[in-house]
Sequence to fold (188 residues):
Amino acid sequence: MAVQEQKADSSFDRYIAEVRAVWGDGKDPQLPFKIAALMEKLFASTSPDDPWMADILRDGKPSRELYRDAEHGFIQMGHVHKQGHSNMPHDHGPCWVVYGAFTGITEITKYKRTDDGTQQGKATLVKDELHRLTPGVVQPYVRGDIHSTHAVEGPAVVFRFLSYDLDKIDRSRYNVEKETVIPVPAAR
Ligand SMILES: [Fe+2]
Fold:
């Protein structure tokens, strides 16, 4: 029995089990918000000294796939971003995403598209909301939400829950200054 006790699940294992338990057919519009709540609970119940998190912190890798669900297709990514790391505004195509901060501060800007999408390759964006992800803060972005991230205080341990493999779907990046949209096709 002692062996059994030593092999107690980590907070990460429990999180994945909880995600799988609420997943259903994956189409519940509330799912991004349910996963965000579970990720908040994960961070609240994880210490930087927990072996699995200590491993992420020690490695300091910009991007790691922590878990991929063979049955449902969702992926949990772990990132360690240096201060100043940022990306272009982008969407996740038909997918949704949940971003959460364990350490550091990551600011995520959400944009509103102001053109009607009729001009090929063109898009005008205005900043709509600024989300400040301090440790323990988690924010879901639903289908179509255009966003960009910026690590304002590092190292920023950022968790990114992907509803599906982004390499398998078509999505877009946006250049705000040039008012262009750049297709990011699925890797074929
Ligand atoms: Fe994103």
